[in-house]
Amino acid sequence: MGEKRLEIPFYARYLLTVNEAACYFNIGAKKMRTLVSEHEGAKWMIYNGNRIMIKRELFASWLDQQTVI
After folding, report:
1. In the sheet where 15-17 sits, what is the strand order?
2. Dihedral angle over CA of 18, 20, 25, 27, nearest 10
3. Which of 32, 58, 62, 68 could cysteine-pair with 22, CB 3.0–4.6 Å?
4. What residues does each domain of the chain span?
5. How far is Cα 66 from Cα 61, in angstroms, rounded to an integer?
6. What does the alpha-carbon distance between residue 55 and residue 36 come to, in Å, rounded to a whole number?
7. DSSP the chain
């Protein structure tokens, strides 16, 4: 039998992919990738293997403190 996958809505996830974060925060995907590369090691970012994941709430807090991105 196939394993049933639990679908968690975007807004309830702790981690988002770079593309999901771009969509969620209404930032272009290219700009989101630039932010990730410019802020390597930021607390709002975590690696899942070689995949970069964005900690949604920490990124939102960081983004609130910015005047320009």
Report:
1. 15-17, 51-55, 45-48
2. 60
3. 32
4. 10-64
5. 9
6. 12
7. -PPPPPP--GGG-SEEEHHHHHHHTT--HHHHHHHHHHTTT-TTEEEETTEEEEEHHHHHHHHHT-S--
Residue 10 half-sphere exposure, CB side, CA atoms within 13 Å? 9
- CATH for 10-64? 3.90.105.50
| pTM tops 0.90 | no
